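Hey, resending since the last one bounced:
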Amino acid sequence: MEKFYIVTPETELYDEYIRYKENIPVVNEIVKTILTKYGIETHLYAAANEYLCIQPTENDKVNFVNQLKTQIDLDLYPFKKNSVIGKEWINTLKENNIKVLHKPLIQFYFKACGKARFRLFHIDDVIYASYETNGEFDNPNGFHEIKASEFYKATEDVE
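The structure tokens again:
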């Protein structure tokens, strides 16, 4: 069963999502500053509170070979925590009291077990969600159920 929703401001998820979206440009600015300062060519990165990972160019691999750990998923290489860049990343976050926030996981708002699929995104000021699982489940408080057609129309209007 799949259901479609507008997430209302009465939910904790709404607040979590807004904080996450507001956090993105803050983290981007810190990353851009570090990439520029150290002459890192790539603009592809993944950030966490303890690590900054990049998808390095060939020059980046050569120039930062001693600072990068081995490759992880998606051709990402984390900077070692004790490297100059790794230390600067962690210290900059601490000094500015910034935490890297990740997209909230909506499955924790549903009282359902088992395999599930979900989507969470915003269009203008409206946060949309969908949740699908094999079993029956109730709508969480603050999740306004909408028709599938309304959900898909909203996404088509943006495209």
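Residues 16-95 form one domain.

Sorry for the duplicate.
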